[in-house]
Amino acid sequence: MTKYSSYPNSMQSSQNLVSKFMTKFSTGSAVVMAIAIACCTPTMPVRAALFDGPVDRLPAIERDSLRNGQTVVTGEKGKYVAKVLVTASPDAVWRVLTDYANLSKFIPNMTSSKVLESYGNRKVIEQVDTRQVFIVSIVSRTKLAIEETDRKQIDFHLIDGDLSKMEGYWKMEPVSSVPNRPANQVLITYTVNAQPSDSTPADAFYGIFKDALNDTLQAIKNEIKSRG
């Protein structure tokens, strides 16, 4: 009888041991699982940094257009922002953008471009643009003051010419086509405010000027590529 009466106590003891073991196991498993999740899940700042380049921050339609080799032009009434993405080094892009004396050789409708004054990173250039609108040839001259920030930006403003206003800047930003890899591309941004003289129909001027921005940036992209 004694033998049989001790059986339930043994069972209860065994069950208590199993229960304690399972509790410890479950707790330990939860801790291990939490550590695994924490290690495998990137924190938000790191994740954001991977896709926070100058092209990544643009609206999706602009990102896709640039990465497909197209030019993006936005704005109205003389105030425009034009962008193009080129596969080249900053040095190669800079050499083309600052080759003022030869711009007329590859930019459409620019018939003349020359440096009038040069003082280090400050220059004065004169450009002549000629366009055929129906049967009328329209010629415009601009004299611009230039200030260069080496391989980053070129600021300009009108000091004389046939327009009432022309000011803005060219900006260069290195871009990596693969996150966390060295930059192998450059985003070129041309921001401009150009206003016609009182004698020029504003709507016609705005349309012509905006259409020309696409041709200008594509020409610059092609020139950078041709120079290697």
Automatic annotation (TrEMBL):
Pfam families: Polyketide_cyc. InterPro entries: COQ10_START (IPR005031), START-like_dom_sf (IPR023393). Residues 86-220 form the Coenzyme Q-binding protein COQ10 START domain. This is Cyclase/dehydrase. It comes from Pseudanabaena yagii GIHE-NHR1. The lineage of its organism: Bacteria, Bacillati, Cyanobacteriota, Cyanophyceae, Pseudanabaenales.
